[in-house]
Amino acid sequence: MARHRSVRQLAVLLLLTAGRAVLAQDLDDTGKTLPAQCDAPTARVESAPAVPVELDQTFDTTNPLLGLYRPEPGSVDAAKAQSETCATEVPAGTEATVEKTDDAGRLLAACASPMYLATAAGVRDQYALPYDPANLTAEIRTAVGVLDPARWVGFDADRPNFHFGHHFPLTFTSFFGYRTATLTLHLRPMKGDYAENDTLSLWVTGASRGWGARLADLGYRMTPGQETTVELDLRTLSTGTSTILADINLFHNLNVYIQDDTAVDSMTLSLACDGSAIPTPLVGVIAGPGGCSDLPEHDVFLDNEDNRNANNRGGWIGATVSNRNTLFRLCAVDGRLFSPAAWAGANFAVVSLAPACPDGMTRFDRFHDNEDNRPASWDTAPGGSPTYTVQPEKNTNMAFCVAAGTASGVPNSQFPTLGMPYGVFGGRTPRVAPSWALDRGYVFLDDEDRRNKNQPASPPASTWSFLEPGGNTTYFLTRIR
Q1: Does 100 score more than 50 pLDDT?
Q2: 387: closest CA among 358, 357, 352?
Q3: What three-state secondary structure class fits 141?
Q4: Which of 8, 61, 160, 440 keeps 20 to 30 A from 23, CA to CA?
């Protein structure tokens, strides 16, 4: 371990100086770059710094397939325009869509066959023996620059300082290409080693570039010894010249690479012609007095100030427990159910239980400095939730998805019916309650008195309806059903 620490301390931070290959060039009528001469070789596309990685195991971070570099801004467009113009001597314009629809806008044919394709790798067995083999190819080993198969592990293996790689071969017929795709990974950072610098790379065999990121930068809580379920929307992962989903549609495969202190239990690649393969933006609503019924319940317990505790509450607070401490009982639902209310202009918030918020809502985090003396805060939020108990001091990060509308007359019918009474955060109006509020209340949390570190001190204006910040915290709650 001492040797590894020494290596980490001496590791070179991969902050690379961006190249300057793209010079000022003439533009055609469409704004594309004109080449100096059509028989000239295409200029090398230099790369800009992307993912700072402090390595404890060496691999080829410069390979564009691993996605840890980004193309120099403008260089991809210049190279693409040059090749298009040289090939035809006429600059290419905007390409027309090839999708055929009827008068109602419905597709006349499936985007691909089958319309839904899900491929699993590894067995969902909680890292149990025997280890499940991965489909490690020579191309993956070559791309990473680690050719020795002995340096690679399969699914379930919890051996630090090893590499993991898996190749998904895909069989489908593409007409217009799948519209949505999700890669779901069940990961567990290893205890006692340095997993903070682990990276994930995705690329498609046949494509020129890939996508990559540090696991710690994906927005999930990565706790050593605890499993986290990571969902990646492959439509949004840009390689600089394409997206991972577009490359899958073209070349029918996917490579996954992870290094080097994170165990992989299993993973599933899902593709669909509709929106069913989009990661679910899970949120938590305030449980009514009867609890969550058939919905999953996730609790967040905040150990408030012990000395002269001033906790307070009033009005409707649902199943929230407020005494000398505070317990939020949250029911987990698909956050997209609240997009209509957000689009209608309502101002409210729900608790974020996944890194992504639904359309129409934005992420906001409130950090609670909890009791310092024998702290006892805890939570049962799902793995990877941005709402969690911050170790080792056992403070609490409350993450919210906020609808920042300003309309006062949004009807209650814009909010979903969940089959049970529930509430959201919001409704703080001195004289006139929002039209969608059936009842209102508040919870006052007496946060730590000594050297209080509550954050942020000045939150955005959109949080005013549900939050009163400071050294202590007041949350305003509203019953919807």
Answers
A1: no
A2: 352
A3: helix
A4: 61
Residue of 268, 162, 251 lying closest to 209 (CA atoms): 251
**Are 126 and 185 a contacting pair, CB within 8 Å?**
no
Nearest CA-CA partner of 444 in 314, 286, 283, 281 = 314
Q: Which domain holds residue 50?
A: 25-88
Q: Is residue 17 included in any domain, yes or no?
A: no
Instruction: Find out whether 203 and 239 touch, Cβ atoms under 8 Å.
Output: yes
If you search the block for the tokens 């909890």, which residue do you land on?
370
Answer yes or no: is pLDDT of 440 > 50: yes
Tokens of 254: 């996917």
Please tell me whether the overall predicted TM-score, pTM, comes out greater than 0.90 for this model.
Answer: no
H runs (alpha helix) in 254-295 = none
29 within some domain: yes
Q: Are residues 258 and 289 in the same domain?
A: no
Say yes or no: 391 and 448 in one domain.
yes
Euclidean distance between CA atoms 321 and 305, whole angstroms: 16
Q: Are residues 164 and 270 in the same domain?
A: yes
DSSP state of 107: B
In this structure, are strands 297-302 and 228-233 parallel, antiparallel, or unpaired? Answer: unpaired
DSSP string, 294-345: TS-EEEEEE----TT---EEEE--TT-EESSSEEEEEEEEEGGGGHHHHHTT
| Any domain includes 100 | no
Q: What is the pLDDT of residues 173-212, one digit of tens each?
A: 999 899 999 999 999 999 876 778 899 999 999 999 999 9
- 129 found inside a domain: yes
**What are the tokens at 290?**
């009867």
d(CA 274, CA 292): 30
Same-domain status, 179 and 199: yes
Same domain for 452 and 337: yes
CATH number of domain containing 267: 2.60.120
Among 269, 252, 171, 160, CA closest to 207:
252
Residues for the chain: how many in total?
481
Is the distance from CB of 151 to CB of 162 less than 8 angstroms? yes
DSSP string across 379-405: E-PPTT-SSEEETTTTEEEEEEEEEE-
73-98: b (≥16 Cβ within 10 Å) or e: eebbebbbbbebbeeeeebeeeeeee
